[in-house]
Amino acid sequence: MKRIKNFDIRTDISYDTAGGYWLDIDGTTARIGMSPLVQETSGAFVAIRMENTGRSFAKGESFGSVEAEKHVGQLIMPLSGTITAVNEKVLENPALINKDPYGKGWLIEIELAKPEDEQNNLLSGETEVSAWFESEITRYKEKGWLADPVTEMQNTQRDN
Predict the structure, then answer these.
(1) Which of 45, 77, 137, 140 could form a disulfide with 94 if both were Cys (CB 3.0 to 4.6 A apart)?
(2) pLDDT tens digits for 83-104?
(3) Domains plus CATH for the chain?
């Protein structure tokens, strides 16, 4: 794990930068979850629905939906594949996505349909992931999607 501005980030895995998912790929299988930045800006997850194992999806298709304090939306498949496992613990307790995004908060595992073709679109490597994550934090703050803890603390102190 690498600490980047209040976030613990795994830099040894791949990221779908368009969807905000992390992918831990081992050969032709991948475990998929939400990046800490996405789950932080969504708020606490309260409900999640995912398709069952055995279903195949093309990259970009919806494999479920989530409801959080600040977001309701579809879960979009970052790579084509067949779902081989669904994290039942997340279905029972969606807050695991917030509490442990890389551990107990994973979403699904898939058998990759096009590993060579689609993995080229993922971001990987410690330097690349770190730079991307830092730039995303800046972008999220500029858009008002992510509060700056120092600024929030100063505002709270000023208001008191």
Answers:
(1) 45
(2) 999 999 999 999 999 999 999 9
(3) 2-159 (2.40.50.100)
